[in-house]
Hints:
CATH topology of the largest domain in chain C: MetI-like fold
GO biological process, one term (chain B): transmembrane transport
Radius of gyration of chain C: 23 Å
Largest sheet of chain C: 2 strands, antiparallel
Oligomer: heterotrimer
Structural class of chain C: mainly alpha
Order of helices and strands of chain C: HHHHEHHHHHHHHEEHH
Strand order of the largest sheet of chain C: 2-3
Strand order of the largest sheet of chain A: 6-7-8-3-9-10
InterPro entries (chain B): MetI-like, MetI-like_sf, Sugar_ABC_transporter
Structural class of chain A: alpha+beta
Low-confidence stretches of chain A: none
Mean pLDDT of chain C: 83
CATH architecture of the largest domain in chain C: Orthogonal Bundle
CATH architecture of the largest domain in chain A: 3-Layer(aba) Sandwich
Largest interface: B-C, 97 and 100 residues
Protein name (chain B): Carbohydrate ABC transporter membrane protein 1 (CUT1 family)
Number of strands of chain A: 23
Number of helices of chain C: 14
Radius of gyration of chain A: 24 Å
Number of domains of chain A: 2
Keywords (chain B): Membrane, Transmembrane, Transmembrane helix, Transport
Shape of chain C: globular
Largest sheet of chain A: 6 strands, mixed
Number of helices of chain A: 9
Distance between the termini of chain A: 29 Å
CATH topology of the largest domain in chain A: Rossmann fold
Pfam family, one (chain B): BPD_transp_1
CATH superfamily of the largest domain in chain C: MetI-like
Mean pLDDT of chain A: 86
Distance between the termini of chain C: 24 Å
Low-confidence stretches of chain C: none
Strand content of chain C: under 5%
Number of domains of chain C: 2
Amino acid sequence: MAQITLKNLAHSYDPTPRSEADYALKEMDHIWEDGGAYALLGASGCGKSTLLNIISGLLRPSHGRVLFGETDVTDAPTAARNIAQVFQFPVVYDTMTVRENLAFPLRNRKMDPGYIKARVDQIAAMIGLEAELSRKARGLTADAKQKISLGRGMVREDVNAILFDEPLTVIDPHMKFELRTQLKSLHREFGHTMIYVTHDQTEALTFADKVVVMHDGRVVQMGTPEELFERPAHSFVGYFIGSPGMNFFEAEIAGAHAIVNGVEVPLGATHGPVPGRTRIGIRPEFCVLDRAGGLPFQIRRIEDVGRHRIIRGEVMGTEVNITVPEGTEIAADATRILFAPEKINVYADDWRVAPLGEEM
Amino acid sequence: MDKTLNNKAWFLVAPVLVLVAFSAVVPLMTVVNYSVQDTFGNNQFFWAGLDWFDQMLHSERMWAALGRQAIFSAIILAIEVPLGIFVALNMPKKGFWASVCLVLMALPLLIPFNVVGTIWQIFGRVDIGLLGYALAKLGIGYNYTANAFDAWVTVVVMDVWHWTSLVALLAYAGLQSIPEAYYQAAKIDQASRWSVFRYIELPKMQGVLLIAVLLRFMDSFMIYTEPFVLTGGGPGNSTTFLSIDLVKMAIGQFDLGPAAAFSLMYFLVILAISWVFYTVMVNLDKAEGK
Amino acid sequence: MMRSPKQALVMTLYILFLMVPIYWLINMSLKTNTEILGSFTLWPRDLTLDNYRTILTDPSWYMGYVNSMIYVVENMVISIAVALPAAYAFSRYRFMGDKHLFFWLLTNRMAPPAVFALPFFQLYSSVGLFDTHIAVALAHCLFNVPLAVWILEGFMRGVPKEIDETAYIDGHSFGSFFVRIFMPLIASGIGVAAFFCFMFSWVELLLSRTLTSVNAKPIAAAMTRTVSASGMDWGVLAAAGVLTIIPGALVIYFVRNYIAKGFALGRV
């Protein structure tokens, strides 16, 4: 087990990259702590699979180094890195039984047969395949096959990290929850570093201690689910996390106030001078409707989504969403919108600007 | 896929039935007809019952031809299938060189059988052929027209030359269908090269390999033109395979009765073996469809 | 891209093994008979196109190519035309005796042509088709139709049945659905089936020689003429051989991007 360090890492599939756009992965410096459960979240094509393959050694980065602990593994082949990886679609050895499948990584490493048996039984119990152990993997359902893949990923105890590449794509929704919970408890039990790639924010937020959000080849934020929610470091995180995403307004910042379309909006903290295109962002959860004060709001429609309602509307031409608890009365004359000042974030050219006095 | 029960589908099959009935059933009936009759010329036929079958079953000539045929098919399967797989494993997966390999490999498959025979007939001759000449220069006594062993080697090498690519192309198609993730997973599982072949590549090639074996078995069991052009069945009878013997008997000596009985038994042997292959294949399909 | 030098070596050796005999044929076709028999040379010292000229100016030679082409194309058209509906039936419906019928069809692919040579000769003679192109085309249907049905069935199984149902709901008749919607979907399958029909019809000699004498004599049979009283005319024989390779080579070149898929017969 080891801490993973990415040093000035960048990757381009083009052997002679000319501009930044040629990079699938833009330069980054990150440390992934030993024993952490990380989720790598982003839309498809943002570079998250590229990053994962670089960590697993299936891809050699064109720039920078990868370190496992103190060892530079940039040029080490996959087998030498001692990691496990679970792929998007089930990879099972069709002609082997489920037991042989699970034992395969251990057998290749010449482990003691007694240990292998015990370990396989343990893993099988965990993924719920004890009954199928002596069946051939061919002919099992996609669900079961993916469970085998997961099991094979977890069967080795000494791995540096376990990487999951959207592993629950083919799994039934109700099984998804169960397996994710399993993974989580496995993590608690064995303390492996786990990196979980997904484009599903629910998956990411429920699985990980730390979520790494990627956008356009860049890691835009690495933080706890709470941090991502409260203080998105980039407007993309604001949009991508949360449902619906963050509301943004073009604004001018003046100390502890923002001026939106000539209306003064109080901020929770004081900001220094902010360069570039400035906007303020506020989560729908922290907006309230009122009869007076704030900004003018026009209701377009109201959606019921289970435990809360989403009010969709407009503030002076900008689309705005508000989330209110189920059963909240919406007054007919509520035509103004108020923001919780301490929940407002300020953005300059899409990046969050910390207020004066906040620790970075 | 669930199929609907619909007996009107027979209408769709009808054209094939009519055509195949015309080109297979009628001739086959003719063969059956000959096989139970005897003739003294002048188109006068006599009922001969199963005499011809009985005679053929006790004919050393037929058993010898069958033996040669079985040995030949066994040898070429034993060479072409592993060699074809080996070549497929070494083929470039994509890009310019993959196309070049594919085109060049497919070439022998589209050469008319007699030209294949001709090519090797020329190639192996000691006076004008590169192979024969080179072997002679190396001091190896080689003459496929006089020495039975040399003739066999030449016929086998010719068939390997002609058909290995078919096996290789089928195997290659099977390999192409393996997602990259399988190889990546194998790397992570620290599987050896042999394990990758045994547990990933071979299972994925299984279906197409069965087709390859079936095709190669059937076609090698029916081989006629290539050895006929190359050796004419000789020297002596050493490369007289079943088809060559049959044509000799039917058209050369006009022994219609025995030839017909021989034909039917020949056909039945192929049918029986092919049926086994076919059943295995269908069962495999089913197992995979699960 | 070659993955490793070892692989490049294996492929080079294998391709050399395939190409050298063909090279030798081409080499001989460009030599005079004197050179062929007189001295052993790795390439033609005395390059000549006379052998090709002989073939291309003599109708009894070049008509052999025309004849072969005619029956090969006829066979391709007939085989595909009858195989399409049958393959559709096998891929979509269960009907009485379907499995037996399918296997029976395949058995015809397994029938040794040698068994059929004589009965074919008598059959086609009795219906007055002896020495016509269509006789050979029909005879080759014996092995090409089952193969075409089998290949097309494989490809058709890959087309979801919902497409058929949607088309009927949209008001297509069976005919218009089949021609306008279904056939374009399995175009590659039709191409593969046509390729195999071409291949097996083009390379077959036993039946085509038995069923023809003058008017429809295939090139392959014409080649046996080079054996004459004055010995073998090796140069012309080689040239004729080279010319029979060209159509196949052209066909392969055009389908080069589909070869791998095609050889899987839609069953991978």
